[in-house]
Amino acid sequence: MTHRPVTRAAATPETAWPAPAPASRALVKARRPRAGACRLAALAAGALALLAAAPAARAQAGFAAPPYADAGVATTDDASALFVNPSAAGLRRGFELAVSASGVPRPAGGDRGDPLRHPFYRAALALGLAGFTLASPEGGRVSWAVSAAHGGPALRVGAQLQSLGTSTWLAQLDRLDPQAPASVAAGAPGDARTTDLRLGALSRPAPWLSLGAVVDHAAQPRLAGVRLVREYTVGLGLRPFAWLPGSGSTLGTRVTLGADVALREGESRDAARVRVGAGFELVPGIVLRGAVEDHGGVRLGISLLGGRSSLHVDSQDCRDCRDPAGTITATVHAAEDRTVLAALERPRVASVRIGGTLADEAIASVSLFDNSTTVDVAPVRRQLERALLDPRTRGVLLQLNGAGGMAQIEELRPRIAALRAAGKPVVAYLESGGRRADLYFASACNAIVTTPESFWAGLGLHSDRRYYRKALADAGLRIDRTSYGKYKSAYRNFSADSTSPADRESIEHGLDVVQGLLVTAVAHDRRIPEERVLQVLDGRSWRAEDLQRMGVIDSIGYREDALRMLGSLAHLGARPHAVNLGRIEDAHREWRVPHTIAVVYASGGIETGRSGNDLLNGAFMGSETTVRQLAAAFRNPEVRAVVLRVDSPGGSAVASDLIWHAARQLKRETRKPLVVSMARAAASGGYHIALAGDRIYADRFTITGSIGVLSIRYSFEGWLAHHHVHQDDFNRGAYMRAWSTGHDWDATEQAAADSATYADYRSFVSVVAEGRGMAWDAVDAVAQGRVWFGEDAKQRGLVDAIGGLDDAIAEARRRAGIPVGARVEPVEYRRPRPGLAQALLGSWVREQWQQSVHLPDAGETRFGTDPDALSIE
């Protein structure tokens, strides 16, 4: 990078720098009109100069000269930004190491001791928000700097503390003025050193616009007796094709234009230096770069971007430079660029591990009666999507180990189908065997491999109901219950002695639906008769060879055998290179990915107050927390549509109503669409909050509806009588006795409770009728507390379409008018993470339980003997 010589501005008037010779003054004066004309011509190129962000002339800072042609304070965002704008480093690739050398040829017989004629070496290490740099001319002392940044693409600020030496300073000044270094060197024997401070800021409010600013020498330190004057640089960047609808992440990143303007403190505006540059990506990974300066400097270069490394080469021509010079920069980075050159690197397959109950959020539920954990499905989605888009990834090894969550797996199966359609085979490897969900997931793959001693059992369905009314009565405890809806069965096992006909009908129907969905899918995917699948699901234990003979699995072996099969299908040989894509970050090519869609996750039972975990019920969703998240999503100025993802069995009627009311009110106030996606369950209160949506999606396995009302109340009258405890009552109100835990409900009190419950039921049905545009009687006919699955619910008008979260987001995009090809990164609102003590307690309880109660699965084949027999020797 070249710069116009401004000797007088490199130090304050009281410094020891001699004034330029008269000839030099004449040269400067003669150049100003032409420089001004160039400046006006550049700025007159429309938004090219004023709105474009390519590097401008930067004068003084020891680390200021950019390592490649079009670097600038608003456009450079990799490790090289540590030499340009400390606030921008690491935005593109995160962890990155860059090493560059600028060569200055020495003429024959030249002064080999002249520091201006030595090659200049630099290195930069970006660690996300932190960075470290080294710089030194050949034979000179090393200068170094540390930097730190804070914020994201919307606004980021940074600071860099430099330990700057004279030799590094002189090597930089060679690109500024051939006379100034000699004057500095004359007054500075040896290699003096000072501490310098650089400040930077970067803002990328849109995919096409970038704004940057840097203050060099913020503290105006002295170096070799010379005060380094503050210098201000502002830059604008423009990606014109990112304006085109749907082109922000494709064509929009191909052309980058920019302009920087630099001015030293105390100088007039006429002394400002302007530099305009551009980068043109011919194909992904091959970039032509160039820049011109208002004082006649020209710089051209080319960049070759590999998947995890890159090479930048450029040359410069400047009439003010003592010798033409070129720079070569090589980088290695953790994040991967998707380029044509990356496709030439070693091909690979992705290894994706899946286990545990998949859900929208990773929730550790700790209670006195149960300790359960769900696994966040989002990383699995991202890995499968990355495998589909990555040109190096030729297939996927899907390692299943006790996966659960049928609705979530149903949403992942289309991603497997997309991989197969793209010619990227998927092989499922089940090391320990599997259950129903594993089989459902694996059947979507090209092939299934399991180990010889894998455990396959209990693949059918079983449901049981236990009734505790008499057992509680023996203890003197009674639970009175009121409900409306003959199918509303919650807590009925505490107040009845057997399964009612309505409950039996609902259970049998649910088992038929779920069994049918699995049988149809597995028979179709594995191309075997449904009768054979039903035989496998009869509940017996099966050996791997039995399942292979029946066509349920393809091969018996180990992980290396599964990889060998995948390598054969992907034409990569017997030992394909396998990687975990979840550990490899994707480079950020776009300046800003719009967050125009928000996803609010509403998971767990519904209670009033804040989300949390109690010792009786475990983790729950609080109305206060959910309403606050909905408000943040709707009032986010960037968000144009909201998706409410519901995964809840219901809970408090008051809390459900508060969430539903807030969603409707926010939708009216902001006039933004709301689309609902229902995951594993949206029942009762969970369905109530879903009614606020403009359109409702459900998976085929989603438990939907349960439109009914109930309440329970416990009584210790029997226990008190058994223990000879006498209770006197004093009431004001005919029905106040019913609220005492010392009395069972009598017929009058039960009737009053039933009447109130029916009124609440009518209100609930009215809300559903209004939200779904149905008659009250039509809703009542499918309500009554009945649980429906996705297809049932759609046929009865309770949901609008069958689909998962991706379908809901696509519908939200359509309603918001977002072009189909435009990349959107939804902003997510999730439940707050538990406090450190709660998280540690939950982890400790689960770990102690697993270590202390390591019981085998029922029916699992074991290799072992009676431990007592080992004592006989």
Describe the protein in words.
The protein is an alpha/beta fold and 873 residues long. Strands 1-2-3-4-5-6-7-10-11-12-13-14-15-16 form a 14-stranded antiparallel β-barrel. A hairpin with a 3-residue loop joins strand 30 (612-614) and strand 31 (618-622). Helix 5 (378-389) runs parallel beside helix 6 (406-421), helix 9 (501-526) crosses helix 10 (530-536) and helix 17 crosses helix 18 (776-782). The protein contains 21 helices and 39 strands. The longest helix is centred in the middle third of the chain and has 26 residues, at 501-526. The chain starts with 21 loop residues before the first helix and ends in a 21-residue tail after the last helix.
Task: Please sum up the structure shown.
The chain has 873 residues and is of the alpha/beta class.
Which residues sit in consecutive blocks of at least 5 with pLDDT less than 50?
A: 1-64, 105-113, 174-189, 858-873
Average the pLDDT over all residues and give the rounded result: 83
Please state how the strands of the largest beta sheet are arranged side by side: 1-2-3-4-5-6-7-10-11-12-13-14-15-16
Q: DSSP strand (E) fraction? A: 25-35%
User: Which percent range fits the helix content?
Assistant: 25-40%
The main β sheet shows up as: 14 strands, antiparallel, barrel
| C-alpha end-to-end distance | 84 Å
Global geometry: globular
Number of helices: 21
Number of strands: 39
Helix-strand makeup class:
alpha/beta
Backbone CA Rg: 35 Å
